[in-house]
Write a structure and sequence with these properties.
Low-confidence stretches of chain B: 9-30
Number of strands of chain B: 8
CATH topology of the largest domain in chain B: Cytochrome-c3 Hydrogenase, chain B
Mean pLDDT of chain B: 85
Distance between the termini of chain A: 104 Å
Largest interface: A-B, 33 and 32 residues
Helix content of chain A: over 70%
Number of helices of chain B: 18
Order of helices and strands of chain B: HHHEEEHHHHHEEHHHHHHEEEHHHH
CATH superfamily of the largest domain in chain B: Cytochrome-c3 Hydrogenase, chain B
Low-confidence stretches of chain A: none
Structural class of chain B: mainly alpha
Number of domains of chain A: 2
Shape of chain B: globular
Order of helices and strands of chain A: HHHHHHHHHHHHHHHHH
Largest sheet of chain A: none
Number of helices of chain A: 17
Radius of gyration of chain A: 28 Å
Strand content of chain A: under 5%
Oligomer: heterodimer
């Protein structure tokens, strides 16, 4: 009966059976990692130089691939932050507390939202056009994400500095409506259909004043040096002080842009497409699971993008609002200058820094905090403080950290404004929405364009 | 056009095109692989809100016949904006409402029949949950009707307490109305402010009556329990800032351009139509008829109190909303007078444990937040009402929806239905 007697009686097998689980894992993992490291080294040595040559030969392509991937990776945390900000800010405006259960101040709430969406059933109702139904969220999401490619986050930190950047932005942003229309049509639901048609009418109407409002800025930006639609160039034209921002030169254009952008992002008071008290959830009525999640994320990514574009075009993008002492030299802080002293410095700072903060924890926390707890909290506080110091040093030393900081401050200002509007305003009606676009915004943007062009021609002649 | 005969439903799905054609009343369809057409052909109008029986009336046949470019939209019973389980079958042309067919009865309990099988004291338990946002008024109407049958004199302090608690609940109901109207128009904030205000009143009444929603407080011949310290302290606390809070909540909407534009001129109910339908309450006063049961057919101590009956002539959704805001202000005045003039004395009249009124009939009506709440009861001399009929204002007001909706947009449906303030518990009885 004992078929495997030969193996079971062998010495290695008996040795194996005497090991604990951790020892067995070690016996597997350590040799495996050694082998993996050897293979990696071999691959790098043999295939590295030709691969580098290949990359160098196709540098624009590689750069595009890296930028696109980075932007795709960036959108999920951005959406998480925006969802949390919206939940919390609206709650405060409604005299509620908002999320406060998951993580400190409920900060992990949107992560939990994401996990919930992932774990739900991916349901396709009867009667849907399955292909279109499946593709619609992808189209919407990718159209929103790909507009981020041309937005300059900081000096040198732009996905692709296209010379037709603004045109690319509006072209890609216009594709969003295709996804919504696909969702509305394929869902086999009248509410979805109404939502899809509303979105088509709304977004196409508001594209026109949105684009026209920016043309004035383009004219102003193109007078000085180059004639280009590059967003990076538009930012550089505005660098200097706050008074160089285009919002002061084109206030009407900014107003039109902001209203039209609200409609483009489907935000209150123009959230016709998903008006929950009228057409349930609009185009997303029949969606569940991660497909709905894509729509959900796309909405918030859209808010971020629209805010980023408003900050870029009208508020100077990553430039500082005043003449900031640019890039102070912090070479004396260069980590390499300390050499081997690092071996001693790191544990010393960690230990005594933890002691320092633990001391305050013990004083202010009272007896509830034990020795080890207060040491742990002290270590966390120390790391937070060190992180702040490193960030401050980066802000002083590197212009891209400064640029990114200013850019994010301006962008999140507009994000908060969008959230504020959502918490305050009711929804307009469909015919009022369309009438407003065609009767007011379009003539106003044409007037703005006319006045700008006339002024430029007269003054620059 | 003859009435449309809905295609018969099939018990199981067929697959071949030949049987489909035979099943669909011999009609020939173009061959297609579109799943919607196939499904519709196999199982009849599964995805349309058309009843599975032939039309019973001419109106039904006319309504369920689609014209050129029209479609049905089934709004409810589970819809975010239908205030409960109201179901409206809309006939739309684009987004414009062509016709509407309200379908009621999803909450029908047969309360009137239950009341006829309960004795007079227990009737008050049954009528409580009808208009669950203003349950005291439904009790009040029943109590008023029974007191006429029994012919009992209610103590004056009990009358004052009734008016006091009733006006408080009227404010709570109107405040909630303001919030829900804004919510149906897409505003998120007002409903939460409304609920804060309502919660204070409801907690106050809970201190007085012991319950937050279904109070069961009024009795034949008085009220159940005198004013207590907690109620009075909460009331004083609230009254010190009630007027200011009301103005603040109203300003949030009154001065909002989007809200005003969404409601002005929408769903205009003219004076003649309103009277024809028998509309009462704020909806009627918004159409220019100064009819208030408290003034027209005075009951309780209302003749002694000073308050205005606000009216407006526009008859649109905005006027209906503004009337409610005015009524809140008047109610605060009434509460002030009640507190100033509150007499001492008992709060219950002496009555036997089991009431057997003389045979007769009586009609008791009070002015509720939604209009005239009436109870018509007939006594045959036994301890149970022989007949018990409830006049519910929401039911009457909701009748005007088919007259108001056609010609408006889908989005206006919410502005109109919410401004009429229906409560489905009372409508379906």
């Amino acid at each position: 009966m004992r078929a495997g007697i030969g193996l079971a009686a062998s010495y290695p097998f008996r040795l194996w059976t005497r090991l604990t689980v951790r020892q067995r894992l070690g016996m597997i993992v350590i040799p495996a990692s050694v082998v993996a490291a050897l293979i990696t080294v071999l691959v790098i040595v043999l295939a590295g130089p030709p691969f580098l040559d290949f990359l160098n030969a196709n540098l624009p392509l590689v750069r595009f691939a890296v930028a696109a991937t980075a932007i795709l990776m960036l959108t999920i945390p951005t959406a998480f932050v925006l969802i949390y900000v919206e939940l919390k800010v609206i709650a405060r405006m409604n005299l509620r507390v908002g999320p406060n259960r998951v993580g400190p101040w409920g900060m992990a709430m949107s992560v939990i939202h994401g996990l919930k969406v992932l774990s739900k059933e991916d349901f396709t109702p009867t009667g849907t056009d399955v292909t279109v139904f499946t593709l619609a969220p992808v189209v919407t999401y990718m159209a929103s994400v790909m507009t981020l490619l041309v937005i300059p986050f900081a000096p040198g930190l732009v996905g692709q500095d296209l010379n037709i950047g603004l045109l690319y932005f509006f072209a890609m942003g216009g594709l969003t409506v295709l996804g919504l229309l696909m969702a509305g049509w394929s869902s086999f639901n009248k509410y979805s259909l109404l939502g899809g048609l509303r979105s088509a009418a709304q977004i196409i109407s508001y594209e026109i004043p949105l684009t026209l409002s920016v043309v004035g800025v383009i004219i102003l930006a193109s007078t000085k040096t180059a004639e280009t639609l590059s967003l990076n160039h538009i930012v550089l034209v505005q660098s200097g002080s706050m008074l160089d921002w285009f919002v002061f030169k084109q206030p009407l254009a900014f107003l039109i842009f902001f209203i039209a952008a609200t409609a483009e992002a489907n935000r209150t008071p123009f959230d016709m497409t998903e008006a929950d008290s009228e057409i349930v959830a609009g185009f997303a009525t029949e969606y569940s699971g991660m497909r709905f999640g894509f729509f959900f994320f796309a909405e918030y990514v859209n808010v971020f993008i629209v805010s980023a574009l408003a900050a870029t075009i009208f508020f100077g993008g990553w430039t500082a609002p005043f003449d900031w002492p640019w890039s102070y030299n912090l070479n004396w802080l260069h980590p390499g200058s300390l050499g081997l002293l690092w071996i001693g410095i790191v544990p010393t700072v960690l230990l005594f820094g933890s002691f320092f903060f633990a001391f305050f924890v013990r004083i202010f926390g009272g007896r509830a905090w034990g020795v080890w707890e207060s040491m742990g909290l002290g270590l966390i506080l120390l790391l937070v403080a060190l992180g702040g110091l490193v960030g401050l040093a980066g802000f002083i030393a590197f212009d891209w950290v400064q640029g990114l900081t200013w850019f994010m401050v301006k962008t999140y200002f507009f994000v908060i404004v969008f959230v504020w509007m959502r918490a305050t305003l009711p929804r307009v009606r469909v015919d009022q929405l369309m009438g407003f676009a065609w009767k007011w915004l379009l003539p106003a943007s044409l007037l703005n364009l006319f006045v700008t062009a006339t002024a430029v021609v007269l003054l620059n002649r | 056009m003859p009435p449309r005969q809905p295609a018969p439903r099939k018990s199981k799905a067929r697959t071949t095109a030949a049987t489909d054609a035979a099943d669909a009343g011999g009609r020939q369809y173009a061959s297609t692989d579109d799943p919607r057409i196939m499904l519709d052909r196999q199982v009849g109008n599964l995805y349309e809100p058309i009843p599975p029986y032939p039309p019973r009336t001419e109106r039904e046949g006319e309504f369920y016949t689609l014209g050129d470019g029209e479609m049905f939209l089934n709004l409810g019973p589970h819809h975010p904006a239908t205030h409960g389980v109201l179901r409206l079958v809309l006939k739309l042309s684009g987004e414009q409402v062509v016709d509407v067919d309200p379908v009621l009865g999803y909450l029908h309990r047969g309360v009137e029949k239950i009341c006829e099988n309960s004795d007079y004291y227990h009737v008050l338990d049954q009528v409580d949950p009808l208009e669950y946002l203003s349950s005291l008024f439904q009790e009040w109407a029943a109590v008023l009707s029974f007191e006429k049958l029994v012919d009992v004199q209610v103590p004056r302090r009990a009358e004052y307490i009734r008016v006091l608690s009733g006006e408080l609940l009227r404010i709570a109901s109107h405040t909630l109305y303001m919030g829900f109207l804004a919510l149906d128009l897409g505003g998120l904030a007002p409903i939460l402010y409304s609920f804060i205000e309502r919660d204070e009143i409801v907690e106050m009444l809970a201190a007085l009556t012991g319950a937050r929603m279904l109070f069961n407080y009024y009795r034949i011949g008085g009220v159940n329990g005198d004013l207590n310290h907690e109620f009075m302290s909460r009331l004083g606390d609230w009254m010190s800032r009630a007027a200011g809070q009301t103005e603040a909540n109203a300003t949030l909407l009154n001065e909002n351009e989007i809200f005003v534009r969404r409601t002005r001129g929408v769903g205009v109910l003219d004076r003649a139509t309103a009277l024809q339908f028998g509309v009462t309450g704020g909806n009627l006063r918004a159409s220019g008829v100064p009819f208030d049961v408290r003034r027209a057919h005075p009951y309780s101590i209302y003749p002694e109190l000073e308050f205005n009956v606000p009216t407006r002539d526009e008859g649109d959704s905005l006027a209906r909303y503004l009337i409610r805001v005015d009524e809140i202000r008047e109610s605060i005045k009434i509460i002030d007078q009640c507190l100033n003039n509150m007499p001492d004395g008992p709060v219950m009249a002496k009555l036997p444990r089991l009431i057997r009124p003389r045979p007769g009939r009586s009609w008791g009506a009070v002015e509720g937040p939604r209009g005239m709440m009436g109870v018509y009861s007939i006594s045959d001399g036994s301890d149970q009402p022989f007949r018990f009929r409830i006049h519910d204002p929401s039911f009457v007001n909701l009748q005007t929806v088919p007259a108001l909706l056609p010609g408006n947009l889908l989005a206006d449906t919410m502005a109109i239905v919410a401004s009429l303030d229906p409560v489905l518990g009372g409508i379906d009885k």
